Amino acid sequence: MDKQPCVYILSSKPYGTLYIGVTSDLVGRLYQHRTDSIAGFTRRHAVHHLVRFEMFGSMEAAILREKQLKRWHRQWKINLIESDNPHWANLAPSIGLPALPPMDAETSSA
Questions:
Q1: pTM for the full predicted model
Q2: d(CA 28, CA 89)
Q3: Is residue 27 classed exposed, middle or buried when 0-12, 13-18 and 19+ CB atoms within 10 A define those classes?
Q4: Measured between alpha carbons, how far is residue 29 from residues 92, 109, 110 in Å?
Q5: GIY-YIG domain: which residues (predicted)?
Q6: What is the pLDDT of residues 19-31, one digit of tens each?
Q7: How far apart are CA 110 and CA 15, in angstroms?
Q8: Does the pLDDT at position 91 exceed 70?
Q9: What is the pLDDT, as a whole number, of residue 69?
Q10: How far apart are CA 10 and CA 86, in angstroms?
């Protein structure tokens, strides 16, 4: 996948901890999250599953969308994820990354 501005949402499990980020290299950034190579929120909370991403023509537009989504209520974010990904599938394989072990749906809470 070529470098392109993108907003992405990661989840620890269905209905679990969510993380919203912005990048111009989605594959590279997901690799960093998966390998816990950067200290921070996603490493502390094991947030590694890509459940939504949106591509943009400019980084400015992507940053504006990221800021918008971060202001949203949690339920709005869940509704957005489920509008295109109702089963909370990990979307990383669709952009060329290997699959992760399935998210544990039985311990999730809404």
A1: 0.89
A2: 20
A3: middle
A4: 11, 27, 27
A5: 3-80
A6: 999 999 999 999 9
A7: 5
A8: yes
A9: 98
A10: 14
